[in-house]
Amino acid sequence: MNIYGANAIYINGIPLEDACRRWFKALHQLYARNVVQTHSAGQVGLKPDAVKPQTVKTLAETMEPETIEVTSSCGRITAKPIVAKLSSPFFHSSAMDGYAVRFADTFGASETTPLRLIEGKDAFYVNTGDPLPLGFTAVVMVEDVNLLSVGKEHYVEIIKGATPYQHVRVIGEDIVATELILPENHRVRAVDIGALLASGYTKVNVRRRPRVAIIPTGSELIEPGTPLSYGHIIESNSWMLSQMVEDSGASAVRLPIVEDDFEKIKSAVLGAVSSNDAVMIIAGSSAGTKDYTARVISELGEVIVHGVNIKPGRPLLLGAISDKPVIGIPGYPVSAYITYNLFVEPLIQKLLGLEAGSSLPNEASVPPMRQHSGQLRVKATLSRPINSTIGQEEFIRVKVGMVGDTMVATPLGRGAGIMMSLVSADGMLRVPAMSEGLGARAEVEIELMRPLEDVYNTIVCIGSHDNTLDVIFNQLKKRYPGYSLSSAMVGSMGGIMAIKKGIAHVAGTHLLHEETGLYNVPFIDQLLKGMKIVLINLVYREQGLIVKKGNPKNIKDIDDLVRDDVTFVNRQDGTGTRLLTNKCLRDKGLSPAMVKGFFDMVEFTHMGVASAVSSGMADTGMGILSASLALGLDFIPVTKERYDLLMTRESYELPIMKALLDIIGNDAEFREIVTSLGGYDLSDMGKVLYET
Amino acid sequence: MNIYGANAIYINGIPLEDACRRWFKALHQLYARNVVQTHSAGQVGLKPDAVKPQTVKTLAETMEPETIEVTSSCGRITAKPIVAKLSSPFFHSSAMDGYAVRFADTFGASETTPLRLIEGKDAFYVNTGDPLPLGFTAVVMVEDVNLLSVGKEHYVEIIKGATPYQHVRVIGEDIVATELILPENHRVRAVDIGALLASGYTKVNVRRRPRVAIIPTGSELIEPGTPLSYGHIIESNSWMLSQMVEDSGASAVRLPIVEDDFEKIKSAVLGAVSSNDAVMIIAGSSAGTKDYTARVISELGEVIVHGVNIKPGRPLLLGAISDKPVIGIPGYPVSAYITYNLFVEPLIQKLLGLEAGSSLPNEASVPPMRQHSGQLRVKATLSRPINSTIGQEEFIRVKVGMVGDTMVATPLGRGAGIMMSLVSADGMLRVPAMSEGLGARAEVEIELMRPLEDVYNTIVCIGSHDNTLDVIFNQLKKRYPGYSLSSAMVGSMGGIMAIKKGIAHVAGTHLLHEETGLYNVPFIDQLLKGMKIVLINLVYREQGLIVKKGNPKNIKDIDDLVRDDVTFVNRQDGTGTRLLTNKCLRDKGLSPAMVKGFFDMVEFTHMGVASAVSSGMADTGMGILSASLALGLDFIPVTKERYDLLMTRESYELPIMKALLDIIGNDAEFREIVTSLGGYDLSDMGKVLYET
After folding, report:
1. Out of A89, A232, A419, whose CB is closest to B195?
2. What DSSP element (H or E) covers A424?
3. What is the percent of chain A where pLDDT is above 70?
4. Cα B597 to the chain's mean position, in Å?
5. Strand partners, B427
């Protein structure tokens, strides 16, 4: 049985470029149908009020413009060219504090033949900005005159002739009436508000903000703030999308949650279409038994695209009802974010007349991700390999940082449901459909989601995970707001290798060398031979077995891990914690194969391990005390280990690193917070333990 | 007499770096006095509600935070770290459409030994996102099962064992409770709203927006929209600054205009100080007879800095009243813009906890100009030389464009009153105090005020001025919103040289070769020998003498220019129009020295000439008919000339140039507008007249 039936085309989706081409072409057709004869865009340079028939119709012109106050027009888009009503200045005014004179009166004045002008008749005091008395044609600076009184008469004595209009702001110096102040399709800024007011405008004609309705669907959804019970999901996507719509310059209309019911969804969509310019339906765009979005759109209008060959974001629906675009947005937050940026953001930009890049009217290139820094693309080196499925274009969120001369990109969690991968992301990496993946150190192009300056001011931390890194990150943002810390959890060994490869500023490491019983140093000596490094202690911390509250399986030590009724959650390869588990098992003569879950259940952080225990996925796992305490679990201590920060001497000297070391070394608040996490010994915190 | 008296220090102002150091140090002291014991910044990773005494006080912490709805928190700054209240997902849920099973039940299933699970007992259908029934631990994709019915019983047949938690979104996969969602001092974005709601928040603790009062002063000022009479100035600075304050993330409180009256200003300032966090007083910060700002501040509080050695912006006042910062902003719009960015914007950033860049608590570096693209600095080549006064740091607005591999910066009008230089600017160039100026082709660093992508999509047009260029600019923004045209008016000869030097995409030129009577081609052959160029006609246009409406001086032809009672306004050297005047005079046997104003009165555009005539500065000037018509002046025709666009073949092939040529060649609306300007013959518009 194949429940997809008629939806077979949907399964893989069509290529992204095809989807964009179909969508943007369809949009032009849709709106063309709606066009009524609109006003002219006016004209420039002459007769601002003349109206001319239009010969070229843009998508933006299909929306009726509106007239608003100049003082509240910031961020809005001009709907026609704006030419100055008035010149500015509007009269000759003084550009200096001094005396207004008639330049013709001053001919022949010199040091040997000073000239006296009668104050109040041939010379008038003017402050900067004052109008010149009518017929006066120059200003002599106050520094260049002598004031004399003879009897009741006051004189202004000058020793140099004035040139015509010297120190005068002449009429139209700034703005000449009829001059173009702002073109059509211009986003109004603070300086434009000043120029519009100065050139005689109090109102301005701008594009109406398109209204975009957002309908969250799903019987499992509850409104934020509602008490949560099993199976419920807090509806957050619509609020994220609402804000994205507002950020795009449109007006978001968030409608109530609709349960998975064909008729109810249909009726909500019909209502939304009638009073908005576009409609987004969240979730139900796939082909499951409760996915009604495609049926609703095809019953009420037409489906243009169902399924795009991208990951995340495949179950996307693009359609139209009553000549209004209707978009079925997939329900996973990352899918929602990506498909919004690819298909809805460009729609709004076109309606506003801000279509980005080089777009001929019907051209449909794949748009860039929404960005903070003007669609900045940077070349970067991948810090970790990426596998990718052939035949599907993938969008991977990455952290980006600058280490030495290398821009380093580290992939974040890839699931469509990993909201935090968007929160943490600095940029987006597109892996083409025909790629099987990218190797570590591959050169890639990243679309930045943060300003470049933020990337330069980010400490790249790759290596072992510890909860204190979160505290450092926060304390850094608090005390040095321009700085940031980006951490990728690849285990201690991965951290040391990242330092070796020059793709991290700092690595957290807690590798115990079995023969010598020393931490970290033997590995550094072996792996980083010849490099200048500094090793600084962060903490000593307690490692042990994290178990459920009350320890229901009565786990007492390592021997219990091989019990049939005990499932263990492990850390990934190359982590000091996994090595510790290995060592503990070997010390007892036990084999990893005897431990249920050892190879199957892997988490990437201590909190992941604690969470797996807390949720019942596993009975126990090796981790740090602070993670256990954070989730209110119980803990069986196994060892106390040293956790250090490793960096090159070059990184050690950087201002951003000085800020980090200042926090570790001198910040009493930081120490109090770490102490309160539990399980930490701070006696060597900030001390240099080894350097080469 | 020296009216500056005690203000002698003010005359030149102190160096910018000193002013910044004094100001930022003073701010830390001011706020330190105001500090009451505030709440803790909370802590990370554990016990989110615990309160700890603080040991490091930042400027931002002196402001009481406030609690607002998450859904309206976009753009606000977190006042403490936010850790997840809930895990997300909050239960194990299906990551696929399929059947939930207990993985232990599936051991041993294979193609040869398929396993049948009873539907509704050992297997349940789940859609993506559905919770797993309690105790169920894996999902088998719907594609991988066979559905069978035997009697009334329905079976789900599988041919492969399930691994633990396969196709399951496990609890905490996205967010683990107690995990850090957002650090302190983080600006909330759309994705953060999603993450905050998903992790259990409906409210969020953010920094209060500082209230900044703005008091415009000046007896000459009127509110926008008030009928204008001689000597009045429309008050626009306060509205520009209000928007800049809002853009900085603070709240602007614009107060009514106060006339130049010591007591009235004093009372307005006192009122503003009592209910706001900072106060800006616009104008009156200089040392003229009606400049009261310094006296008001020193009487009510203390002056910290009076006069900074920058241009524009010298007459700046920094002070404090009742421990509140009070800033005297100079009255010229460009001075206001620059001093706001240097001294007020960083203050707001500090109060919000967003201080940019590498700022140790008391460090006071000179801040960058406010920017759209994350403080992006680019290297550029100067297209024109710049003179600068030694001993004064100068801020020069520039247009920036990319020609071939060269980023080209062209200086704009430099006066402090040239608002339009801010409207047109792509970036800011700082000329250090000790520089005498910069030569053409100098390598300079530009602080971009637009996204870099905009710079790449800008056509750089250097050369002769014609009013149709404004129309092209507007039409380009209308039909190709991603593209822009930047034009610098340096005359026809300057345009040809700009093409030669590779610093312009296109040059407008109308050079008449005296011997041959040909336009442009002889100059191109001589000056651009060996280059591949394309010459395209834009228009034929009427040049003539622009005179006042009604021609009161009864000017009839070129002979009248040498009359004693006639003042002439000329164009700058290297312009085709100036050459035309020269030729006309020579033809009549007249010398330029006989023409009053010929060497003194120079304008850079046809509109500048028309404006000079309109305002009475001059009686006549040579210019194009459209400029004369635009200002309602009269016109005595002299000649009809050819105005062409010159470009290299390389530029001719660029997509941006194709867009421009599309408008010139095919846009009926464009032709109608140009025709309506008057004085243009479009018969060869868009035709290639010459190519090499």
Report:
1. A419
2. helix A419-424
3. 91
4. 38
5. B398, B448
Q: What is the percentage of chain B residues whose pLDDT exceeds 90?
A: 63
For A193-240, what is each residue's pLDDT tens digit? 999 999 999 999 999 999 999 999 999 999 999 998 888 899 999 999
Question: Which residue's entry shows tokens 């396993």?
Answer: B115
Contact, A88 vs A201, CB < 8 A? no
Query: Are B188 and A234 within 8 A, CB to CB?
Result: no
Q: What distance in Å separates residue B116's CA from the closest CA in chain A?
A: 16
Q: Which two tokens mark A210?
A: 């398109």
Q: A452–B374: do the CB atoms touch at under 8 Å? A: yes
Question: In whole angstroms, what is the distance from residue A311 CA to residue A289 CA?
Answer: 22
Nearest residue in chain A measured CA to CA from B350: A481
- Cβ B288–A127 below 8 Å, yes or no? yes
Spatial separation of the C-alpha atoms in residues B346 and B324, rounded to whole Å: 15
Which residue from B618, B622, B580 is spatially nearest to B605, judged by alpha carbons? B622
**Are A167 and A141 within 8 A, CB to CB?**
yes
The structure's pTM equals 0.88
Other CB atoms within 10 Å distance of the CB of residue A322: 12
Residue that the structure tokens 């206001």 belong to: B336
Q: Give the position of tokens 């040909």.
A: B518
Q: Among candidates A455, A355, A337, A327, which has minimal Cα distance to A395? A: A337
Over residues A108-121, mean pLDDT: 92
DSSP-derived pairing of the beta strands A233-234 and B533-547: unpaired
B19 φ/ψ angles, rounded to the nearest 5 degrees: -60, -45
Q: Which helix (H) or strand (E) holds B406?
A: strand B406-411
Residue B593 at interface with chain A, using a CB cutoff of 8 Å: no
Q: How many CB atoms lie within 10 A of CB A495?
A: 30
Residues in a beta bridge with B276: none
Distance CA B629, CA B549 (A): 10
d(CA B27, CA B350): 10
What is the structure's pLDDT at B10?
Answer: 57
Report whether A242 contacts A248 (CB < 8 A). Answer: no
Whether B48 and B178 have beta carbons less than 8 Å apart is answered as: yes
* The two three-digit tokens of residue B354, written as one number: 């967003």
DSSP one-letter string for B590-630: --GGGSTTTTT-EESSHHHHHHHHHHTS-SEEEEEHHHHHH
pLDDT of B344 strictly over 70: yes
Dihedral pair phi/psi, residue A118, rounded to 5°: -80, 125
CB A176 within 8 A of CB A207: no
Rounded to whole angstroms, the Cα distance separating A608 from A612 reads: 6
Contact A612, A622 (CB under 8 A): no
Helix (H) or strand (E) holding A296: helix A293-300
Pick B453's closest partner by Cβ from A58, A375, A477. Answer: A375
Residue in A with minimal Cα distance to B629: A46
Nearest 5°: phi and psi at B632?
70, 35
Reported as a single tens digit per residue, the pLDDT across B554-611 is: 999 999 999 999 999 999 888 889 989 999 999 999 999 999 989 888 888 888 899 8
Spatial contact of A368 and A342, defined as CB atoms under 8 Å apart = no
Write the CB contacts of A326 (distance below 8 Å, at least 6 apart in sequence): A269, A273, A278, A279, A280, A281, A297, A301, A317, A319, A320
Would you say B118 and B155 are in contact if contact means Cβ atoms under 8 Å apart?
yes
Report chain B's terminal Cα–Cα distance, integer Å. 67
Which two three-digit tokens encode residue A420? 């935090």
Cα separation, A479 vs A658, whole angstroms: 12
Measure the CA–CA gap between B246 and B210, rounded to whole angstroms.
10
Is residue B173 less than 8 Å (CB to CB) from chain A? yes
Q: Report the run of H or E that residue B571 belongs to, with start and end.
A: strand B568-571
- pLDDT at residue number A74: 96
What does the alpha-carbon distance between residue A615 and residue A612 come to, in Å, rounded to a whole number? 5
